[in-house]
Fold these 3 entries.
Entry 1:
Amino acid sequence: MKEKHVTEVLIDHEQHQRLNEFADMLESIAKKLKEDKQFTFLHNEEEIIIAPSEQVEAEYKYTIKGAKHSFEIELDWRTDDKGSQSLNIK
């Protein structure tokens, strides 16, 4: 029988910000990933360390519905042979 894993949502966050603020955040994440192989997300005064493995699967999705455009970036990686984690940046 296959073991069923429970999904644990550690971050579910949306915020309105200016485009240059969003770009700065992406640059900060990229810099930390290159230098430290991880970054810290502060959510509700809790620090959540996000540390992908060396091999990641990146998914990009761009949709248009009327006047609303949406671009999503998703990273998936495995921490062992059984489980996986993901990060969505919207």
Entry 2:
Amino acid sequence: MLEAGNNNELPPIPVKRYFTIGEVSDLCRVKPHVLRYWEQEFPSLKPVKRRGNRRYYQRHEVILIRQIRSLLYEQGYTIGGARQKLSGSSDNGEIAKYKQVIQQMSKELEELLALLKK
């Protein structure tokens, strides 16, 4: 779903367990109020809520947000169409998500290796 060209525009996802809404906003280039709206529109987007109703997103949710962003902003889908595409293409969506995760991890490992060589 996310083409390599779209990923180059976005910053790499750091190796962390949880991300705040501000961090996700920066990583996906989407404003926080848009992320809160998408939580209502996309049932699969459910960040953990902790004390004070603060949202904490996991890595797979950041990848899902990037997929939603790509569908809406680059591919021209409506919210309903993007929701249907994400729910209807479970196999293809899963494969694309895992490819994205593998590419991201590979890039991070190469960066880590470069740091260790210094």
Entry 3:
Amino acid sequence: MEVILDTNALSAWLDGDEDLKLKLSSATKVWLSPIVLGEYRYGIKGSRHKEMYESELAEMERDLSILLIDASTSESYAKIRCGLQKAGRPIPWHDVWIAAQAKQHGFELVSRDKHFDHVAGVSRLDW
């Protein structure tokens, strides 16, 4: 199984969450989204431990693959966002991009955010 990490999963991974690491031990590949990287980097900017987090993130980026956003991703984004809007269940726009990448590639989305459960074609993996 290949997975893509949401921002809360990336944060938990870098914080050494053992439950998450155990849950992901069967994953064949772990991916990152540039959207997640941007959100995480934004959070780092205001941290007292900025240098430590940046160092840990740089190490993780060397070990994991980063997905690209392309025309197919944008099509998936538009379909998901319209579907959620029609269902009356909008979610934050940045999470729509993350869901679009998960759906586009058929990856499980590792997140604690339950609003992803309303995205058709996306399977959320909690820990």
